[in-house]
Amino acid sequence: MAAMLGGGDGMPLEQWFFEMPVCTRWWTTATVITGVLVQCQVLTPFQLFYSFRAVFHKQQVSRRIAKTKDSTSHSHTDNRVKQYWRLLSTFIYFGPLSLNLLFHIFFIQRYARMLEESAASVAHFSWLLAYAATTLLAIAPLFNQAFLGTTLSSTLVYIWSRRNPDVRLSFLGLLTFKAPWLPWVLIAFNVVLHGQWPKDELCGIAVGHGTYTFAMSGGHEDSELTKT
């Protein structure tokens, strides 16, 4: 995978893990654990997806209780708590254990890691993540997006590509291009592979462009959102 997109030398798994900066490490760990729990059927995707109604409105469920054989059953209604965990779980579920999950983990640990390592501090990168995640949560209902991990990853890839315009990448050893073309190369690859435009990645590019443009507007190149 690293060779496909200009990766570097290999390293032991343990060293690779502990050398990751803190935000990237926790995001990667949460993604792997969530994938394993879904694979083992401890969790289901229905418990993880983002829904504005499920998060901000109490859900009601009716259950029928039968007291005895001779008595008539009746309905009882419980108010369930607001499901705030979905605000986070939507960003850490990329599917059960599969090559697709490994593909996304690669992008998290590579491009999110490079952004975090070049940030002025952990707080700067945390602010960038919070800003992008909040924007995605706000617009997700408009595009009917339930899982936002791929979209957030695409946002970070776009910001990294704009912050490193002179870096040259290689795709499959056949195509060499500069970093700003990376998001579009990935979209083209998805179109060829799946035969349809990847809505998640397009939305991620839009949010990444908005974040980058906002941070750089007026010549504020040291904005906390994209400072490197």
Report on the structure:
With 228 residues, this protein is mainly alpha-helical. It folds into two domains: 13-48 and 90-219; 51-85, no CATH class. It has helices at 13-18, 22-39, 52-56, 86-89, 99-118, 122-143, 149-163, 182-194, 199-216; strands spanning 60-65, 74-79, 168-171, 175-178. The longest helix has 22 residues, at 122-143. The protein is globular and about 50 Å long. It starts with 12 loop residues before the first helix and ends in a 12-residue tail after the last helix. The model is unreliable at 61-79 and 218-222 (pLDDT under 50).
Report the C-alpha radius of gyration, rounded: 21 Å
Number of domains: 2
Proportion in β-strands: 5-15%
Spatial strand sequence of the major β-sheet: 1-2
Distance between termini?
Answer: 26 Å
Q: What would the average pLDDT be, to the nearest integer?
A: 82
State the helicity in percent bands. 40-55%
- The helix-and-strand class reads mainly alpha
Biggest sheet details: 2 strands, antiparallel
Order of helices and strands: HHHEEHHHHEEHH
